[in-house]
Automatic annotation (TrEMBL), chains A, B:
This is DUF1680 domain protein. Residues 20-394 form the Non-reducing end beta-L-arabinofuranosidase-like GH127 catalytic domain. InterPro entries: 6-hairpin_glycosidase_sf, Beta-AFase-like, Beta-AFase-like_GH127_C, Beta-AFase-like_GH127_cat, Beta-AFase-like_GH127_middle. One of its GO terms (biological process) is carbohydrate metabolic process. Residues 507-621 form the Non-reducing end beta-L-arabinofuranosidase-like GH127 C-terminal domain. Residues 410-504 form the Non-reducing end beta-L-arabinofuranosidase-like GH127 middle domain.
Length: 626, 626
C-alpha cells in the first residue's frame, strides 16, 4: 500500500499528483502524514525483523532510509510537504500541520532501526534534525515559542533521551510540554496559536473542520496549560500521545521534583476521568466524530444512530502507551487491566485476521449509515502501521524489567506464550510463559538461570476480571501489592516451575449507570464479545431492538474457523424485541419496555473477530437488557 | 424593556450605541431582531387591548405605528438595520440576516392592529412594503430568486391573504416555500445561498457560529427542497414557522390540488418525525444548543450535563401554531393534545408568575452549568413578546369555527373558562365553558342562542391523556371521530347545558425506549411535573442520582401559594440514590443499578411553576426509575 499510494517514494522529494487533492479534513493536506506512515512502518518492520528475517522487508527498510537521508536539507530539516509543496513555509502552522508529529515518528523509527541494525544510518540524520529543532524552538527572542498541534515528538524525544542521555533532548520535550496552552507565551505574551494564525493572515471565523467553534484549542489539549487541565478533552489520539509523554517526563524526572509534583497529579486525574467516565467497554475512547475525540462525561453511545462512537484504533494504542508509562511510575494492575482490554479489543479489532484490511473507527454498534466493515487502506493511514508497530513491540507491553549488577526485577503485565531472556551481569535468566491465553487462563511459568545466582524478583499481575484464581505451588504467605503477586528470589530458586490459573467464565457486565445505556456486555477473561448477523441471518435492525436475557446460561463453544476462538452461546438468550407500539403517535406513554416476538438463540463472538466472516455488517456489543 | 434597551425608539432611524456591539451569534448583529420585537409586541398588545383597555399601552401602540410609518423608505422598504447600519446592503444576506422575518412580524402586528383599531394606519405601510417585496423577489431575471433564512413572512403573508384576498400575497408566500432549498435555482441554476454568499465575497470555510460545517443549510431547512425533506432538521423555531406556513398553504389550496398533494405528506411526515422521535414530554423541541434545534432521532437528554436540551420557548409556540393549522386541515385530537401539552408546559414555563421574568431555553433538568432560572430580558428577545402575543391569541387556540348563512361549526380544542360569541346571519350564539381546568377536569357548557335557530354543530375534544371520561347528559349514541365528540343541532337544542368530565389523576409516563432515558415523568391531565430544591432542601445533585419509586401512591395536594395549583406528593417516593461504587476505577462492572441511602419524600410541582419560589435552581422533570 505504501508503494501504490506514493508514500514509499515520497522522500525522493518529487511532485506527486495527489499533492494537489483538496483536503478531506480541511485545512490539512491529505499527504501530510506520509512521513509518519514511513516512520511507523520502519519502526514496525524493525521490531518484526528481530523475530523473523525477510529479505524484501530488509531491503525496503534500507532503501527508505537512504531516501530519508537524501531528503534531508543541509541544515537538518526533513519533511516531505514543506520540501516539495510549500517550500519556505516550514514551522508556520504548528497548530494544524503535522511537521513535528512526523519528526517524532521518524525518531521512533530510527530508534527501532538502531536496535535491529545496530548502526546509525537512520538515527544520525534524525539527530541532526533534532539539533535543528533544539535551535529553532524555545523562549529566546530568535526562537519560536510554539509547540506541536499533534503531540508525538515529545514522547519520541523522551525515548531518544533514554538512548542518548543528551539533556537537550529531554529539555526540548519538557519545554514543548510546559509551554503548551500558555495564554501568555512568547515575547508577545499571548497564546501561540493566536499569534501564529494571525501571522498566517487567518480570519478567526475560518474554522478547520474539526473546530466546532473559533479557538477550539481544547481539540489540541492546548486550551489551558496542561497542569490546569481538569478533564480529558479533544482529539483522543493527541490526548494519549501527549499524556504518554507527560507520564514519561514524570518518570524521567525525580518524582518529588517540581516536574513530578506538577504533572503526576494531572496524569492521574485525566486518566481517571477517561477510564471512569469516557471509555468504552472495549477500551476504545472518543465518542465524537467531528473532533475524533472525547465527549462529555458518561456520553458513550454505541454507534452513529445513537449520537456517535469513534474509538479510533490509534487512540486505543495511545491508551496502551500511556498505561505502559504509568506502570513504570506505579506498578498497579489497574493500568495493566486497561492495557489488556485495549489490546484484545479496541486495538486488535483494527486489523482483519489476514492482516490485509483495517478499521479506523471502531463503533460498538453498526447502523445503516455505518456498517461494521474493514477497508484496505485510508487516505489518512495512521492506524494500519500503528497496529504493525504495536504488535511488533508487544514484548514491551507484556513485561517490563529493570536490572543492575546482581539484581533483576521482572513485572509480568500480560500473559501470553512468550519467553524473556535477560542478561544480568554474568548470568542469563530465561523466563518462559506457556498458555493458551486469552482462551484459557492457565499459565505455566518456567525459570532457567545460567551462571551465578541472581537476586530475581518476579511480579505477576492478577487481572481485575479474575473473580478467583490459584497458584500452584504457592508461597505460604502471598505477598500481593496493588494487584501484583510479588515472588522473591528464595522462593523462585526452589520453585522454578509453577502455574497460575485465572479461570475464565462468560460474564455479563454493565456500563456506569450515568451512561444511561440500558445494556449488558458479554465478556470472558479480557475478551469483549459482540453479536453479528453472520450468526443471526434473521437480524435486520443491527440488534438494536433485540432484548437480551442476561439470566440464561452462557455456554462456551470452542471454534477453529476462521481462527481459534471461544464463542458464547445463549440459548433462547434473545427474549424478544422492544415493544414500541405504546408510543405510536405519542411523545410519552404509560406502556413499559416490555418485549414482543419469540425467543431466539444468540451467539456471541469476540469483538476483534467482527467483519471477518462475511455477513451484512450488522453488529452490536451491548445488547439491551431492560 | 423595549424602552430601556433602545428598541422602542429604533424606528426613529437614529444610531444606537449598541449597533456596534460585536455579535453574540456571529455574524448576526444583536439588534437585528428589533423590528420583530416591536412587531410582536404590537400584535400582543392589540389582542390584549380587546379584553382590557389600557391608556398607556394604547398610546404606545399609536406612537410606535407613527414611528414605523415615518421609517418607511419612499419605495416601501422598512428595516432598522439596513436603514441605519448598512444602508445600500438590503437583501444581500437573506441566509443570515432577518429582514424578511422582521417584515413577517410587522405584518402580523399590522393584522392585529387592524382587528383592534379597525383602521389601516399600520396595515397600509405594510401593504406598501409587501408590494416592494412582490416586485423584488421571483424568478424573473430582474428579480432575486431567494428566500428568507428564517421563515416567518410566509405564514404572515398567508394570514394577510386571508384578509386581503390579494392573490399576489398568496403567490409570494408560495414561491418562497417552493423555491426554498432548490439546488438549481435562479438564472445561475445553483443554490441561492451559494450564489449569495459568493456575492458577499465569503470564504465557504468562514462559518456562522450555528453552522457545524460548511453549507449547513439544513439549519435553515434549505438543504433540499421542502418536498424532499424526510426528517425535521435544524433550527427548531425556523422549522415550525416554515411548516406552519406550509400547512396553511395546503389549507388555502385545494387539498387535492398539486400543492396539497405535494406538501400535505411533507407536513404529516415531518410532524410525525418530530412528535414521535424528537419531542420532549413538555412539548419542547430541539436538543442541540449550537443550532438551537433538532438532534438525531430519540436523542433527548434532559440537560446540559447529559448532552443537551434546548427546547426554546419560541419553538414550542411554533409547535402550537403548526398544530393549530393542522387542526384546520384535519380535526384530530392528536394535534390538539400536542398543542395543549406545549401550552401548559413548554410555553407557560417561559414566563414567571408575575410576568416579569422569562426563559429562552427550557431544559428538563438543571446542572451546575445551567441552573433553572429566569431572566428579565435577553439580547435576542424573541421569546418574551412571543409569549405575550400567544397568550393574547389564546382564543384562537381554544376553539376554531366556521360559519355560513345558516350553519355554524365550532370545534373546542382546549378547555378553559371562556366564552365564544358568534354572529351567524341574524342570530347570535354564545357558548360558555366553566371549569377549573387544568386542576379539575369538569367542564360545564352553556349554549345561548338569540334569534332564528342556527344549525350548530359542536365538536369537543377528548384528550388523549383521559383514560376515562363522562358526559352528562349524553346523547344515546355518541358520535366520536378522531378524538372529537360530534354534537348535532337537534341534541344541542334540547340540551343547552351539559357537562364533560375528564378525571385527572397523577400518572407516571415513560419516554420512548429508544431514547434510553431510564426515567419516569409525573403528569396530571395536561400538566407535566418536576421536582425542585425549594421543596427538597437536601438536594445537591440536581436530582440526577435520585431514584424514584413509581409504585408509591401519589397524593394530590391543592395549594394556593404562590398561585393555585395541585402539587403531587410521593411519600417515601425517593427510594435512595444511585449506587455507583461498583464502578470506582472501572469502565464496566457486574454491579447492578441498585440504590443506596434512605427513602425520602418527593414533592412534584408543575413544570411551568419552576423558578418561581426561590431555591438554588436545582430542578428535574424525569426522575430515574431504574
Amino acid at each position: 500500500m505504501l508503494r501504490t499510494t506514493g508514500r514509499y517514494d515520497a522522500f525522493k522529494s518529487q511532485w506527486h499528483s495527489s499533492y494537489s487533492d483538496p483536503p478531506t479534513m480541511w485545512p490539512v493536506p491529505n499527504h501530510q502524514f506520509w512521513d509518519s506512515d514511513i516512520g511507523k512502518w520502519i519502526e514496525g518492520a524493525c521490531y518484526l525483523l528481530m523475530d523473523h528475517f525477510d529479505e524484501d522487508i530488509d531491503a525496503a527498510v534500507k532503501e527508505l532510509v537512504q531516501m530519508i537521508r537524501s531528503a534531508q536539507h543541509p541544515d537538518g530539516y526533513l519533511n516531505i510537504h514543506y520540501s516539495v509543496v510549500e517550500p519556505g513555509r516550514r514551522f508556520t502552522n504548528l497548530r494544524d500541520m503535522h511537521e513535528l508529529y512526523n519528526a517524532g515518528h521518524l525518531i521512533e523509527g530510527a530508534l527501532a532501526h538502531r536496535l535491529y541494525y545496530k548502526n546509525d544510518d537512520m538515527l544520525s540524520p534524525m539527530l541532526k534534525y533534532v539539533d535543528l529543532l533544539v535551535a529553532t524552538f524555545g523562549d529566546q527572542p530568535f526562537q519560536i515559542p510554539g509547540y506541536p498541534g499533534h503531540p508525538e515528538i515529545e514522547l519520541a524525544l523522551l525515548r531518544l533521551y533514554k538512548v542518548t542521555g543528551n539533556e537537550k533532548h529531554l529539555k526540548l520535550a519538557q519545554s514543548f510540554i510546559e509551554e503548551r496552552g500558555n495564554p501568555t507565551g512568547g515575547t508577545e505574551r499571548r497564546h501561540y496559536y493566536d499569534v501564529e494564525s494571525e501571522s498566517r493572515g487567518e480570519n478567526k471565523r475560518t474554522l478547520p473542520v474539526y473546530f466546532p467553534a473559533a479557538r477550539s484549542y481544547w481539540y489540541q489539549q492546548a486550551h489551558v496549560p496542561i497542569a490546569e487541565q481538569e478533564t480529558i478533552e479533544g482529539h483522543s489520539v493527541r490526548a494519549m500521545y501527549l499524556l504518554t509523554a507527560v507520564a514519561d517526563l514524570v518518570r524521567v524526572s525525580q518524582r518529588d521534583s517540581k516536574v513530578g509534583a506538577t504533572f503526576l497529579p494531572v496524569v492521574n486525574r485525566l486518566w481517571s476521568n477517561m477510564v471512569e467516565r469516557r471509555s468504552y467497554v472495549t477500551g476504545g475512547i472518543g465518542a465524537i466524530k467531528q473532533w475524533e475525540g472525547f465527549g462529555i462525561d458518561y456520553f458513550l453511545p454505541q454507534g452513529t444512530d445513537e449520537g456517535g462512537c469513534y474509538a479510533e484504533t490509534c487512540a486505543a494504542i495511545g491508551v496502551m502507551m500511556l498505561a505502559e508509562r504509568q506502570l513504570q511510575i506505579e506498578l498497579d494492575s489497574h493500568y495493566a487491566d486497561v492495557m489488556e482490554v485495549c489490546l484484545y479489543n479496541a486495538v486488535l479489532t483494527g486489523m482483519s485476521l489476514d492482516g490485509k484490511a483495517f478499521t479506523y473507527v471502531n463503533q460498538l454498534a453498526s447502523s445503516d449509515k455505518d456498517i461494521s466493515q474493514r477497508h484496505e487502506w485510508f487516505e489518512c493511514a495512521c492506524c494500519p502501521p500503528n497496529v504493525t508497530r504495536t504488535l511488533g513491540y508487544l514484548g514491551g507491553y507484556v513485561w517490563s524489567h529493570s536490572t543492575n549488577e546482581e539484581k533483576a526485577v521482572v513485572n509480568v503485565n500480560l500473559y501470553t506464550a512468550a519467553t524473556l531472556r535477560l542478561q544480568v551481569s554474568k548470568s542469563v535468566i530465561e523466563l518462559t510463559q506457556k498458555t493458551d491465553w486469552p482462551w484459557n487462563g492457565d499459565v505455566y511459568f518456567n525459570i532457567c538461570m545460567e551462571g551465578p545466582p541472581v537476586d530475581l524478583q518476579l511480579r505477576l499481575r492478577v487481572p481485575g476480571w479474575a473473580v478467583s484464581w490459584q497458584m500452584t505451588p504457592s508461597p505460604k504467605q502471598l505477598d500481593i501489592r496493588k494487584g501484583y503477586i510479588y515472588l522473591g528470589a528464595e522462593w523462585l530458586q526452589q520453585n522454578s516451575q509453577f502455574q497460575l490459573s485465572f479461570p475464565m467464565q462468560p460474564r455479563v457486565v454493565r456500563p456506569h449507570p450515568l451512561t444511561t445505556q440500558p445494556v449488558g456486555y458479554v465478556t470472558r477473561g479480557p475478551i469483549v464479545y459482540c453479536v453479528e448477523d453472520a450468526d443471526h441471518p434473521w437480524e435486520e435492525h443491527h440488534f438494536k431492538m433485540t432484548i437480551f436475557d442476561p439470566k440464561v446460561p452462557l455456554r462456551e463453544e470452542a471454534r477453529s474457523q476462521p481462527d481459534q476462538y471461544v464463542a458464547i452461546i445463549a440459548e433462547n438468550g434473545a427474549k424478544g424485541e422492544l415493544n414500541m407500539s405504546p408510543w405510536d403517535r405519542q411523545i410519552v406513554s404509560e406502556g413499559n419496555n416490555g418485549n414482543v416476538g419469540e425467543r431466539k438463540n444468540l451467539c456471541f463472538v469476540p469483538y476483534y473477530l467482527r467483519a471477518n466472516r462475511g455477513g451484512r455488517g450488522q453488529m452490536r456489543v451491548g445488547l439491551r437488557v431492560e
